[in-house]
Amino acid sequence: MSEDSAPAQISGRDVPFERLYVAHHRAVLAYCARRVSRWDAWDAAAEVFVVAWRRIDDVPAADDARAWLIGVAFRVLANQRRSAGRRARLLERASRDRAWAPMPDEQLLRNEEDREVIDAVSRLSRTDQEIILLNLWEELSPGEIATVLGISRDAVDQRYSRAKQRLARELDPKRFMKRRATQPVATRGGGT
């Protein structure tokens, strides 16, 4: 390689890291490969050297560098095992959980009433639809809905109440209006 095609100037930090990598990558990879699958070993070795890059000033002198790197590899592999265990437990729990139920458009409607409710919800504004579905479909509490939407708990309560009223009107406008007209003022929010 000519001087013209040489890579860009290497920083002072790069030189010790490059030497460390060249001297110890094989040993770190072998250590990892004896403990996990080939692909996981490559990932672990790469992560070890990411740690070494970030903490280059903490890497001991040449004689102790290999042991330090193997120690990092030990912790990286332990983290991988813990992560794999968490993933396995999550998948097991999720397979038992109803979160894996079919999507709404895949479900069979139990009866005509279900169709009416779905149609009524679809006629609501996007805001009303979202707050109703977050509560009923996702089973989120008002506090959780407030977090999702980035609004206060009081705002969620108000929006949810209004959305339910709009849904009731959509479901049966004649019955809703008739019930409103015959309902005593005291139960509609007036005095007792």
Q: Residue ranges: pLDDT <50 for 5 or more in a row? A: 1-10, 185-192
CATH architecture of the largest domain: Orthogonal Bundle
Query: What share of residues are in beta strands?
Result: under 5%
CATH topology of the largest domain: Rna Polymerase Sigma Factor, Chain: A
Secondary-structure element series: HHHHHHHH
Distance between the termini: 94 Å
Can you say what the CATH homologous superfamily of the largest domain is?
Answer: RNA polymerase sigma factor, region 2, helix turn helix motif
Average pLDDT across residues?
A: 78
User: How does the overall form come out from the CA principal axes?
Assistant: elongated
Question: How many distinct domains?
Answer: 2
Radius of gyration: 31 Å
| SS-based class | mainly alpha
- The total strand number stands at 0
Helix content: 55-70%
Number of helices: 8
The main pleated sheet reads as: none
CATH class of the largest domain, named Mainly Alpha
Q: What does this protein look like?
A:
The chain is an all-alpha fold. It has two domains: 12-99, RNA polymerase sigma factor, region 2, helix turn helix motif (Rna Polymerase Sigma Factor, Chain: A); 109-183, Orthogonal Bundle (Arc Repressor Mutant, subunit A). It is 69% helix and 0% strand. The protein has helices spanning 14-33, 38-54, 62-96, 112-123, 126-136, 142-149, 153-171, 173-182. Helix 6 packs across helix 7 (153-171). Mean pLDDT is 78; it is low at 1-10 and 185-192.
